[in-house]
Design brief:
This protein has eleven helices and ten strands. It is of the alpha/beta class. It has two domains: 199 residues, Vaccinia Virus protein VP39 (Rossmann fold, 3-Layer(aba) Sandwich), CATH 3.40.50.150; 85 residues, DNA Methylase, Chain A, domain 2 (Alpha-Beta Complex). The protein has a seven-stranded mixed β-sheet with strand order 3-2-1-4-5-7-6, sandwiched between helices. The chain is elongated.
């Protein structure tokens, strides 16, 4: 069966990449996002796409039904379910478009399959309860997951909520009725090392600046042999803590020795910073972050997109490998 897919909150096209990687039969008949910068990147990589710069609430039921889609892939705004978004849940206006979609679920003519991604925390929300209640009302079989790329052999942490749902008379053999699954039913090998995604001859512009080095003790520093990296957020390169890992070619022993010397000075002083500069700490490039998020090696950012914009877009994107594996389960 050749599936017809509607990609909502399409961003830079992570779901599109995941569909391609899954090798399933079908086509993305339309993609919708209101972010014009993300849409530039999407079209640069998928120039023949039917991409709409629209508010999802502006899509009428008739318009969607006329597309004859049987599959919806979506990653609604996550801010309402995060600390930075003050956990406003259904009271955050950024949930309005998703609530609108939930209200339409029983009215779509041909919808059979859904994959939805969101931030960890969504599973505790009122919006999640409304979504699941509607899936039950519409007689969708569904399974929820909390998954990290490391679950599928990718050396990156990015714990996210996923829900796959389908209308079917059969039940998944792996299904856990009231449980959120923390792994996929298939076994995967250990993550590759970071070396597999490193670019060569990286520009000095990616070296960590003094304003970040002065808080060097909170940096997550990894090497080429590391088999992990922290979640990259849209604030990467702007804040020191919790926004993503930092790379160095220095050995772990050299890093420890350098920090021991640096910490003999007052943290944040010129001497502290100058000592840490010996490690040539650098940020991962946008291309490297793309690869850690399992985008294909052919994927590129257009030259019109700034580095800051690249990181912001990546921070809002998905891990392609995780979604690709979930798609295979959804259509199994």
């Amino acid at each position: 069966m050749k599936h017809r897919i509607l990609e909502l909150y399409s961003g830079i096209g992570g779901m599109h990449c995941a569909w391609n990687e899954s090798k399933l039969e079908g086509e993305i008949v339309a993609a919708v996002d209101i972010n014009t910068v993300a849409n530039q990147v999407y079209l640069y990589n998928f120039p023949k796409s039917n991409l709409m710069t629209r508010n999802i609430q502006a899509l009428s039921l008739k318009e969607i039904n006329d597309m004859n889609v049987n599959t919806i892939l979506m990653s609604p705004p996550c801010q309402p379910f995060t600390r930075n978004g003050k956990y406003l849940d259904e009271n955050d206006p950024r949930t309005n478009s998703f609530l609108y979609l939930i209200s339409l679920l029983d009215k779509f003519d041909k919808l059979q399959y859904i994959l939805m991604e969101n931030v960890k925390g969504f599973e505790c929300s009122t919006v999640r309860n409304l979504f699941i209640d509607k899936l039950n009302q519409c007689q969708f079989e569904y399974q929820e997951f909390l998954l990290c790329p490391s679950n599928v052999g990718v050396p990156n942490s990015r714990l996210r909520y996923y829900c796959i749902a389908r209308k079917t008379t059969s039940t998944w053999a792996f299904k856990r009725k009231t449980e959120i699954m923390m792994s996929l039913p298939k076994a995967y090998g250990a993550p590759d090392s970071i070396e597999s995604i490193l670019e060569k001859d990286v520009s000095h512009k990616y070296l960590v600046k003094n304003n970040i080095l002065k808080r060097g003790n909170v940096l997550d520093i990894i090497q080429k042999d590391s088999k992990r990296s922290c979640c990259f957020t849209k604030a990467y390169t702007h804040y020191a803590e919790g926004t993503g890992s930092i790379y160095t070619e220095a050995s772990p022993e050299t890093v420890d020795e350098c920090f021991e010397r640096a910490n003999k000075f007052e943290v944040g002083t010129d001497n502290f910073i100058e000592t840490l500069k010996e490690l040539n700490l650098r940020f991962f490039t946008p291309k490297e972050v793309l690869l850690l998020m399992s985008f294909p090696s052919s994927y590129k950012f257009p030259e019109t997109i700034t580095i800051k914009q690249c990181y912001r877009l990546l921070g809002n994107s998905i891990n392609v490998k995780v979604v690709s594996e979930l798609l295979k389960l959804l259509f199994d």
